[in-house]
Design goal:
- With 427 residues, the protein is mainly beta.
- It is 9% helix and 44% strand.
- It has helices spanning 2-6, 58-69, 89-94, 140-156, and strands at 24-25, 29-35, 41-45, 72-75, 99-107, 113-121, 126-135, 165-172, 175-182, 189-194, 199-203, 209-214, 221-226, 232-236, 242-247, 253-258, 265-270, 277-278, 286-291, 297-302, 309-314, 321-322, 330-335, 341-348, 351-358, 364-366, 374-378, 384-391, 394-401, 407-412, 416-422.
- The strands form 7 sheets. It has a 5-stranded antiparallel sheet, with no helix packed on it.
- The protein starts with a helix and ends in a 5-residue tail after the last strand.
- The model is unreliable at 1-25 (pLDDT under 50).
Amino acid sequence: MRMASIFRVFVSAVFFVLSTAHLQAHAQLRVEISGVGAVQIPIAVAGFADESIAPQKITSIIRADLERSGVFKIIPANVVLSETASVSFGDWRNRGAEALVVGSLQRQPGGRFSVRYMLYDLIKAAPLSGFSMVTQPHSTRLTAHKIADDIYEKLTGVRGIFSTRIAYVTKDGRSYRLEVADADGEDIQVALRSSEPIISPSWSPDGNKVAYVSFEAKKPVIYVQNLLTGKRTLIANHWGNNSAPAWAPDGRTLALALSRDGLTQVYLANADGGGVRQLTYIDCINTEPRFSPDGRYIYFTSDRSGQPHIYRMDVDGMSEQRVTFNSNYNVSPRLSPDGRLLAYISRRDGAFYLYTLDLTNGQELRLSDTTMDESPSFAPNSKYIMFATELGRRGTLSVVSIDGRSRHRLTPRAGDIREPTWGPFMK
């Protein structure tokens, strides 16, 4: 069936029943690094003075963030240095480091503590960045991620993504959970729990809500859930299938795939579910809509040529044109936030691989070496892609840099993990 070929990800899930509306803590994911960048920046992260007052070791989190990015080579420090300590630049350069991170923690009233951090450029023998912030014990990880973000940005010129969040679906036995976690897979919170599958989560641009598909009415229905309050809003419960929600960049509109009038077509709706208007009318399956970052276009999957390929149209449904031509099966379009790359899943030689297409020059690049890839999602800085795949018949998440050199996996302690979506930068 044509529908079976296009809805490869969709048909793997069935029904969902909501059993909890509020976030609940859960077990962590295991990180496995399997690749690094072509050029790495040698950096030493000294132990922060008095960091034992925090419930977690801030410098360990910073080192793990930097190492996982593939951009940095961690030079062993084995020393504690506060931001006020004198630094022997020559000694650190002799160890092979080009940058050095130092800092300290100090107790504050009410159980809080201040974190002070300094980044040195060892080549120029001068401070490059630094700041101080007061934090609560439960925000230790976020504080460390923000320091790692600053280091990444100051040394690469690109905004860091360590303090961003991800969402995904975990299956453990007959239990399904929509989970939200730090980008490193830590600090997991359960947003939704079900005895049936959950599919198609999609972050809102403000990072406070997730749209998803629920089958609690014995049919696919789209909801939006506020992650801060747990409140959810019914968005689409039309006749037939309601699927593939995707947010417009301004957060005021959702693109949907609905089959209320027959074959699945692309529609737009207001963020509250009202104002539904149809965009595609061709007598075939049109699904998986995604907005371009500037909101001018919608990319979507269609089998109008006889095989599923990715197409683009204006946001008003006009000027449809085909985008992918290689292979006879290309689905799940995702646009990089900078608008330069299109990520998608392509079937080649019977396997399903993650590919990108450079929209500026038409160059295609395969980014995965696994064979059952699905559900790509860009990091908000456009430098990494998270996707679901299968290893040893077990669902796991992989993260790969857009050049394909740096990669790591997030693996659950038990069960399978699918349907990732990378959250936006938070203001």
